[in-house]
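I am going through a labmate's work and have reached the protein record below. What it holds is a sequence and that sequence's fold in token form. Please read both lines and tell me whether the tokens look consistent with the sequence. Do not assume that whoever made the record got everything right. Thanks in advance; the entry in question is below.
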Amino acid sequence: MTPRIDALQYANWSEKVFRQMREGRVDAVHVTIAYHETFRETVRNVERWNRWFERHPDLIFHGKWASDVARARAEGRTAIFFGFQNPGPIEDDIGLVEVWHALGARFMQLSYNNQSLLATGCYEAEDAGITRMGRAVIAEMNRVGMVVDMSHSADRSTIEAAEISTRPIAITHANPHDWAPALRNKKADVIRAVTQAGGMMGFSLYPHHLRDKSDCTLESFCEMVARTAETHGVHQFGIGSDLCQDQPDSVVEWMRTGRWTKDIDHGEGSADAPGFPPQPPWFRDNRDFDNIADGLRRVGFDEAEVAALMGGNWFRFFEESFEPRG
């Protein structure tokens, strides 16, 4: 059977969440281990994950290669793949790209909303594109086998990354801007640039990325998937839920603000509701992946296409992306 893969989660991790992954038959999850952390702070997050792997070996293990997804499915466990939502863990040192790959990181966003040393974030007024260091880091990520993720990056930067990278890149968690006009969502020319270069995009279930937010219907979401797949090709898409299950609202401040400002950055929320929005009732946690699969069938996808969207496409992408070159 085709594996089930979620290309982005940032839950408040616990045995409960890990058991729900198994109840939802989720074979692999890309988890965020850094937003604004430095190298050493991110190592501390790896140490925390190592304790979870030690305590729950019947439920989860550290995934590093595409073959680990098949292993997870065969053993009834979930492979956990590490990724960063900002390049902070490499600081200003390109040599740390290879170090992090050796430590198991497989995804890195080139920017998180703001300008970074590598690329422009989607909240900046001007998009200067990929920087000189960004070009060098992309080449190094291509060499060692780390995915270039542009989920929170601005349009020009994302298009340039797709052009510069010699391996397909990813937008692990976002939706089309014309369906839900959040700053984080992607315009058609950006999706086209990524997918035509062989890249992948994961559809997000985070309410601020959805039409009608927490009131978004399963039918609306699946119809959006169908229209996007018809335009850009069904084999370039999957799920990147951006599930932030059980996180306290205080975590939103770290995600959006980090240490770069003294003010509260409400980002995709609002001054009246700066915390996490409630999930739509048809996708509350990992146990609800069957709802998405059923909804995709109802809007006309056949079984092979449903399997591809629920994990098969990401599995192929993992096979192409994680192994070093040369």
Summary: The first helix runs from residue 15 to 23. The beta strands are 5-9, 28-34, 60-62, 78-84, 105-109, 147-149, 170-174, 200-203, 237-239. The chain has one domain: 5-321.
